[in-house]
Amino acid sequence: MKYKPLNPELYRLNRRRFTSQMKPDSIAIFHSNALMPRNGDQFFPFRQNSALLSLSGLDQEETVLVLFPDSVKENFHEVAFIKKTTERIATYEGQKYTKEEARKVSGIQKVFWLDEMDKVLNELILLSKRIYVNLNENEYFHSEIDTNNLRHTKKLQQRYPAHKYHRSGPILKKMAMIKSEYEIATIDKACEITEKAFRGVLEFVKPGVMEYEIEAEIIREFIRNRANGHAYSPIIASGKNTCILHYTENNQMCQDGDVLLMDFGAEYANYAADMSRVIPINGQFNPRQKSIYNAVLKVMQEATQMLVPGTIIDEYHKEVGKMMEKELLQLKLITKTDIKNQNPDKPAYKKYFMHGTSHHLGIDVHDLSNQYVPIQAGMVFTVEPGIYIPEENIGIRLENNILVTDHEPINLMASIPVEVEHIEELMNTSILT
């Protein structure tokens, strides 16, 4: 990994938070993600399982974490199993964690090689009554491919059919929604790197550059600042592409007079930033672009103030819809008649603002969450309203990352330019230079 190791107290804290929610005489088992075949003899770049990483900090393939808070076997309450470096691995891939390095990173003292796991883990499981397994419980995701954790869960159920099985997901969701000070600091670092990349783009963009050239400038800044890379596939969309919500081709030329919508964020120590900004390719918004931009900006600012403890997410989204409805009326994109005749299940504003406004952010860009839990201090959300007008080739989406507190919401991207005048000033200064 490129990033500097985080404070192991983060992982100790997360393990305490998790084990405090376990049932008595339970053991919890977490497997790293598998290496995913790419083509031929190649794998995709490895990305650690978020649950295992948040509980241990061990960012390496073929890693297993075991938590057994009620273990009667002394000092076996936390155990990690890691891949041993062979001579071949050292030659072709480089050194993997030593046991001492794994202890230092994770704060876990009992570390074994992976080839010792069967005997050690079997004894611990037989001393337990229940097994917590880690499955993907993101409600918006479904894959035809079994995860590494799911494959191992099936093996456990065959080998230990008399044990009771429990889901780690509900505990992990509860943990993920409330960020610790260490996690907030890491997300803040990802936002800082994202800002550096955006400011570089403001100096770089001009008519005639290609969208992929802009993408290259962004990843250059990410890597030089120790980020893993992109937290998600970056959207670099100019002209008509700004109206495609998940446009990732990034292969068109930026034309004079068009706007450029960028949705990207750095991933630092596997924690994500998630930012959207729109800039004029020639350095100057025209009046129509400016009016739409300022309407979206107003909605974003008003929505941010609603991210306070006690707010219900569903109610929040409905209120943001009303804000957008008001702006679209002023822009003459919808009429009062449209609103009067609208289908309640598909409000008139949805024609131009068809996606949600906020999601949880953390070790995953769409972090684990329970949408029925009221907003609480310590949660981190995106705020990303947008207006998309295909007939005018204009799409405007603005997005910040917001920390909920017991007082005012804190904008973790407050220093990233977003006002029309500020963006134009920075771009024109660059052009003159």
Descriptive tags:
Creatine Amidinohydrolase; three-stranded antiparallel beta sheet; 13 helices; single chain; globular; Creatine Amidinohydrolase, Chain A, domain 1; six-stranded mixed beta sheet; 36% helix; alpha+beta; 433 residues
Structure description:
It is a single chain. A hairpin with a 4-residue loop joins strand 16 (386-389) and strand 17. The protein is α+β, with helices and mostly antiparallel strands and 433 residues long. Helix content is 36%, strand content 17%. The chain has 13 helices and 19 strands. Helix 10 (287-304) runs antiparallel to helix 11. It has 2 domains: 9-177, Creatinase/prolidase N-terminal domain (Creatine Amidinohydrolase, Chain A, domain 1), CATH 3.40.350.10; 181-432, Creatinase/methionine aminopeptidase superfamily (Creatine Amidinohydrolase, Alpha-Beta Complex).
